[in-house]
């Protein structure tokens, strides 16, 4: 079993979720409220380590009226245990935090030392050799009460999740902006597929305007 996974993101018209410098201020206030309403509805929220390093997010519900118990469980995929110990999600008691780490990190001196500190402030889940086994992680999350999971990228984790067939729904806010840049992050990066025939198929569900943004919603076609 696994959680029902909703990938949510904001991107520019040319498909970028961040510039080449890492700037990612795309969503307007209306869209941020939509995102935080979704956070309030799910059991967990997951990001990759690069998102934590770049943005130092809180991953809580704070753009709309809420209580502490409305915050989803925070999950960070961090294969090498690189999360900075001064990260905001490790230094508050707003929500439970789970750090997913690869088994190889147990044998790397710097990672081992980091893990000793992380054990004091978060729940650690070890799986996979060099990289976290995402299917194992999904099973673990489901077994620990996370039936709905919001995925907020970044681009490498997004691709890994959809390649493994672990995303059920996609919600995208398209902002009327163009930034370009071959080094700018797109919604899905990673290794990609070699042929169009391998592409993941998605089914259009709905669309609507929200402020200056266009919201698109899709279901992932499990038949590929």
Provide a concise account of the structure shown.
By secondary structure, the chain is of the alpha/beta class. The chain contains 5 helices and 11 strands; from the N terminus they run ββαβαββαβαβαββββ. The protein has a single domain (4-220), classed as Dihydrofolate Reductase, subunit A (3-Layer(aba) Sandwich).
Oligomer: single chain
Strand order of the largest sheet: 6-5-4-3-7-1-8-11-10
Major β-sheet profile:
9 strands, mixed
Might you state the CATH topology name? Answer: Dihydrofolate Reductase, subunit A
What amount of the residues lies in strands? 25-35%
**Poorly predicted runs of 5 or more residues:** none
Order of helices and strands: EEHEHEEHEHEHEEEE
How many helices? The count is 5
- What is the H level of CATH, i.e. the homologous superfamily? Dihydrofolate Reductase, subunit A
- Tell the overall outline: globular
| Helix fraction by DSSP (H/I, runs of at least 4) | 10-25%
User: What is the name of the CATH architecture?
Assistant: 3-Layer(aba) Sandwich
Overall number of strands? 11
Query: Span between N and C termini?
Result: 19 Å
Q: How many separate domains? A: 1
What structural class do the secondary elements suggest?
alpha/beta
Report on this structure.
This protein has one domain: 3-Layer(aba) Sandwich (Dihydrofolate Reductase, subunit A). It is 22% helix and 27% strand. The protein has five helices and eleven strands. The strands form two sheets. Strands 6-5-4-3-7-1-8-11-10 form a nine-stranded mixed beta sheet, with helices on both faces. It has a two-stranded antiparallel sheet with strand order 2-9. Strand 3 (44-48), helix 2 (49-55) and strand 4 (73-77) form a beta-alpha-beta unit.
